Amino acid sequence: MKKERKIKKEKKPAKIPYVEEDRESDFSEEMAPEMHKKSIVKNGKTKKPVKTSDEEDRESDSDEEMDPETHKKSLEKLKKIDPDFYNFLEENDENLLNFGVESGDEGSDGEDQEDEDDVVHKPGPLQADSDESDFEEEVEVRGKITLKMVAEWQEELKSEKKIKIATLNSVIKAFNAAMLRATSDDGTSKGEYKVEGSSVFNAVIQMCVLYLPAAIKKYLGMEQSGKDPQKCKHFVKIKAPLVAYLNDLLKLLGGVTSENILTVLLKHLHQMSAYVACFGRISKHALKKLITLWSRGEETVRVLAFLCILRITRNQQANLLDLVLKAMYMTYVKNCKFVSPTTWPSINFMRRSLVEMFTLDLNVSYQHVFLYIRQLAIHLRNAIVVQKVENRQAVYNWQFVNSLHLWADLLGATTNKPQLQPLVYPLVMVITNTIKLVPTHQYYPVRFHCVEILIHLSKESNTFIPILPFLLEVLTSYDFNKKHKKVSMKPLDLSCVLRLAKSQLMENGFKDSVIERIYGLLLEYMANQSHSIAFPDLSLLAIIQIKQFLKTCSVSNYTKKLRQLLEKIEENSRFIERERSKISFSLSDSKLVAAWETNISTKGSPLQTFYENWSKINKIQKRKKVTKNDEIAGELPMIKRPKLSEDAANTKPKNEGPTELFPSDSEDEKDHFKLEGEDEPPRKKKIKKKKESKKKKSNKKVAVDDIDDIPGGDDLVQDLSVNDW
Questions:
Q1: What is the Rg, in whole angstroms, of the alpha carbon atoms belonging to the chain?
Q2: Considering only CA atoms, which of 535, 618, 603 is closest in space to residue 569?
């Protein structure tokens, strides 16, 4: 009876649904109905149905094929569906829950159980995935890129036929493999392609730089310039490869330090700027790198970086302009902290390029300009109210002065547009009060810089600004007859100084430099106003003050300069009076007055003609300071004696006569200068020096076509030739 009851209970399908549902993943579908039998639990004992030898063999085979991951998942399902049965297994059959081991029948002996564990439950299947994963890695790498493959891709990119998307994908993946090789620690690339060797690496990059932009443009059908790539029909297909390529290009740009290779990559990025602007995250990342290059490095690199910034910003002006203006202004302020004759050109370039960026949208720029001028005014107010050195230094520094330069240039460049003109008055008030903050002799350089800014703003914005008092005050407040206590060989360069030390005030070079600056600034301002109908009245104050200075000053060099300036001002004043006597209209008619002044300006006034000639000479002197011609020529004054060779020294008689201490400065005489017993060694030495200097000059400027000769260094790209650029 007991056996019959057991058989009946086993035949009831209602008792075993969860076993078939939960554990069928451990076995094949064919074996499931025969092998899944629920154990009978009675009085706390587990009994399993008797299995045939075929069933045991099949079960052992299925256990060997069992995947531990699926086994683990099935047990987790069992725990959720029937927690009671899972707890029972945990208490009575723990080996089942160990993912590599199962327990044998309770009725079997320990030896049989050990044999069964050895045969069925081997840990080997846990390592079955390693062979498959290795095979998958081998499948992923298609093969090593060769120069022949690069040449084939290059021909496909250059072909006039329709460009295939497969070709573009292969080229971009090859570029990615090259970048992975450059950035990996072991110098190998993992991906669909593998790049080995510097020749293949450079060939892949050169192919992408020279031929990929035109191929992408042809594939998208962007023959029309200015067309948005996102509106092209096939942009969706190439979107993902483009993102990958642009990311790799920015990585390459960040890993290169050679100026010539940077020039090539920036030209390439300029061609790809239309695609960069399609992706917001890539655009911001690219702009961050480009702004860094714009503020540092060689001149060509800076110009190309700015062109890339301008093109990317124009394509996404609504989203990027606000961020770009802020980032570029902060970078400008950080990089104009120190000024020298060699850094002035780079600071001027940043200032001019920033003016161009601000003029893209004057409505957006007004918010920035208003905010930054207000910040300058707050610093100035704190310095006036709180008389402390820290507050004064917050105003009298190059960052503050160069910011004034920037906003004056911007307001002067946008005179014909009304958006920024309300800011002219507050800016002029900030500049004039900066002059008045500490009006002592030590801060004359700051005064001259501020006056120069006001002259430029007055000229460009066609606005009258009372500038003469700030210059004439120097002539009346300082005693130029006072004898100096120190002698300086050269005059002080006030163009790169904001504050003078007390020791410098005692030098004769200080007075020379002050007179030079007053002469130049007075001449420039009066020349700008020389066509004005009110010039005789405007120049009256200057004439009176200069005459008074000439009476009191006893230094001939100073009086000679200012007397010449006075004569030119009086001559121009008489010229304007003669022309003004011929007019028949009323001075209250502003339109006719403006037309008359324009006519005088086109004809040219005497003072304007004199200023133009003087300005040409002054610019040449400034260029000499920038190029350091004096330092190259040698320090002066210096006595140079001709060096004799050993043969000439031996053959020269001892009592020949006195040595010539001051040889002639003429080059012809130096070339023909020859000692007895010498075969023109000075000429040979000079030729060598000229050759060496030519070599030095040629090394400074390297053409883009000569990139093959670039030394490696830390750059990712080496020996990149772009002769077909």
A1: 43
A2: 535
Q: What is the Cβ-side half-sphere exposure of residue 536, based on CA atoms within 13 angstroms?
A: 11
- State both tokens at 395: 């105003």
User: Is residue 313 within 8 Å of 301, Cβ to Cβ?
Assistant: no
In eight-state DSSP terms, residue 704 is G
Note whether residue 574 is domain-resident.
yes
Task: Please write down the long-range contacts of 366-371, taking CB distance under 8 Å and 24 or more positions apart.
Answer: 366/419, 366/420, 366/423, 368/325, 368/326, 368/329, 369/407, 369/410, 369/420, 369/423, 370/423
CA angle 380, 386, 387 (to 5 degrees): 95
What are the residues facing 144 on neighbouring strands? 194
The tokens for 29 are 């579908």
Q: Residues near 67 by Cβ (< 8 Å), separated by ≥ 6? A: 125, 128
451-460 tens-digit pLDDT: 999 999 999 9
Residue 484 resides in a domain: yes
Q: Which of 172, 258, 305 lies closest to 722 in space, CA to CA?
A: 258
Phi and psi (nearest 5°) for 145? -75, 135
- Tens digits of per-residue pLDDT, 45-102? 444 444 444 444 444 444 444 566 777 777 777 777 778 777 777 776 666 666 554 4
Q: Which domain holds residue 71?
A: 2-123
SS3 track for 142-177? CEECCHHHHHHHHHHHHCCCCCCHHHHHHHHHHHHH
Which helix (H) or strand (E) segment is 7 a member of?
helix 2-11
CA distance 333 to 232: 41
Q: What 3-state DSSP class applies to 234?
A: coil
Task: Give the chain's domain count.
Answer: 2
**Separation CA 113–CA 230 (nearest Å):** 69
